[in-house]
Amino acid sequence: MTPPRGEPHRSQLLAIWEGVLAILFINWSTGVVMTGYALWLGAPPVALAILGALPMVGQLAAPLALFFRGSRKDLSANLSAFGRGLFVLVLFVPLMPEPWRIPGLLIIAALTQLILAPVSVLWTSWMADLVPEQKRGRYFGLRNGVLGLVGTLGNLAAGGLIDALGKPWGFLLALGLAVVAGVGATFILRQQYEPPLVSTPPRPSEFIEPLSDRRFRGFLGFVVLFLGAVSVGGPFVFPLFLEYARMNFTQVGLWTVIAASCGLVLSPLWGRLADRIGHWQVLLFSSSVAALVLPPLWLAGGPGQLQTIWISAVCDALAWGGIGTALTNVALQSASPEKRNLYLAWYWMAFAVGGILGSLLGGALGSLHQQLKLFPSPYHLPILVSMLLRVVAVYYLWWRIRRDKKRAAALRAQA
After folding, report:
1. Does residue 199 register a pLDDT over 70?
2. For residues 289 and 402, what is the distance between their CA atoms, to the nearest angstrom?
3. Whole-Å CA distances, 149 to 66, 138, 208, 357
4. Mean pLDDT across the stretch 189-193?
5. Which residues contact residue 67 at a Cβ distance below 8 angstroms, ignoring those fewer than 6 apart?
6. In CA terms, which of 90, 221, 325, 374 is 20 to 30 Å from 135?
7. Cα(334)–Cα(377) distance, integer angstroms
């Protein structure tokens, strides 16, 4: 079927504008604003680990997308509006009895992520039909860079708002605006063109078929290892900045602006490089930075010693500018168009499994501080262990890439 005049370019531009609003909801509902709100409510390290892992854990519901009927656009918009609208309940958590506040906050955040999870599959599949494969690296690199800058400018504004208004009013206003922006994004989503697609729920034998793909199976193993490692220490990075290094919310917001400004340049460059050398190689290089460079820079910082923390903002953009685009594109390239949703569902499930395992370990390590007192804060040990596990994951990825190249060379020699 021939697309309408001006498509898909028009919808590609709209997807960037839609993302500008959506990223404000995502960043404020899962990042430093939400972390600060939880700390104000009295969240212990275990609760912070769970809260930080919920975006990953929620992806356990991503396979539900395979069983939905109807337009991907309508389903994405309806689920997004409902899930983001539900999040408004966090504004009423301070009215709960004190013992219920943290459990209530976690339940609301978890329900939001579970409702939004199938959108990951539906939207990614939809966008894969709108962006030609040979241009995906450049397009998603540009989109991720723009969204990163907008999101972190939003973080800076939210940080200034919280510092100016104080607690809890600054938190409540920022989280309320997040809901407005997130629901507003769905109106732009509905204006995009959707190529027609006919899908049927997979049979049990079809559902497990991706696991017989050796290369994709290795990719899933890396996703579990690496994102599990990230979720061990990732939820504790902003608490480390705020509570140990004594940064205020404006400073943390500035840190995110530096990262995003660098990401606006580096993400498109990673995308262009991926279109030339492949997303596997970009994933290896960028995840190496996330493993070997970022955690030592975080841990080297402290009260009045913020130099390495500021440097880590640039390195954060260098790492995640490549990882964010490469992960999704490796999953997309692993399947034919008719099996794309199935492969994406497995990718997001691996994402969730890593998040669950990592958050359990991170929470346990954070709680050990009260007993052992081996480090200056409850956040040092989880970040240190996260670094070690990231290195293991990167080595595993390097080994898989090397082995796949040898097998490919052997097959060419036999032919």
Report:
1. no
2. 19
3. 33, 17, 38, 30
4. 90
5. 201
6. 221
7. 42
Q: What is the gyration radius of the CA atoms in the chain, in angstroms? A: 21
Reading phi first (left if > 0) and then psi (alpha if -120 to 50, else beta), residue 138 is in: alpha
Cα 37 to Cα 99: distance, rounded to the nearest angstrom: 16
Residues in the chain: 415
Could you give the CA distance from residue 363 to residue 236 in angstroms, rounded to a whole number? 10
pLDDT digit string, tens, across residues 201-225: 777 777 888 888 888 999 999 999 9
- Which pTM value belongs to this model? 0.77
User: Exposed, middle or buried, 44 (CB in 10 Å: 0-12/13-18/19+)?
Assistant: middle
In DSSP notation, 12-40 reads: HHHHHHHHHHHHHHHHHHHSHHHHHHHHH
The terminus-to-terminus CA distance of the chain in angstroms comes to 38
Domain ranges of the chain: 9-193+212-409
> Which whole number is the average pLDDT over 260-281?
84
Q: State how far the Cα of 281 lies from the Cα of 285, in Å rounded to an integer.
A: 6
Single-letter amino acid code for the residue at 390: R
Closest CA to 159 of 249, 93, 280: 249
Helix (H) / strand (E) element for 102: namely helix 98-130
Number of H helices, E strands in the chain: 16, 0
3-state secondary structure of 237: helix
Could you tell me the two tokens for 229? 């490692």
Contact predicate 237/298, CB 8 Å:
yes
Provide the token pair at 385: 């262990």
Torsion sign across C-alpha atoms 130, 336, 226, 38: positive
Instruction: Report the Cα 83 to chain-centroid distance in Å.
Output: 17
Query: Which position has the token pair 């997001």?
Result: 348
Give SS3 for 131: coil
194-198, 238-242, 314-318, 378-382: least confident range: 194-198
CATH for 9-193+212-409 (1.20.1250.20, 1.10.10.10, 1.20.1440.20, 1.10.287.3510): 1.20.1250.20
CA dihedral 64, 69, 72, 76 (to 10 degrees): -50
Average pLDDT over residues 1-23: 84
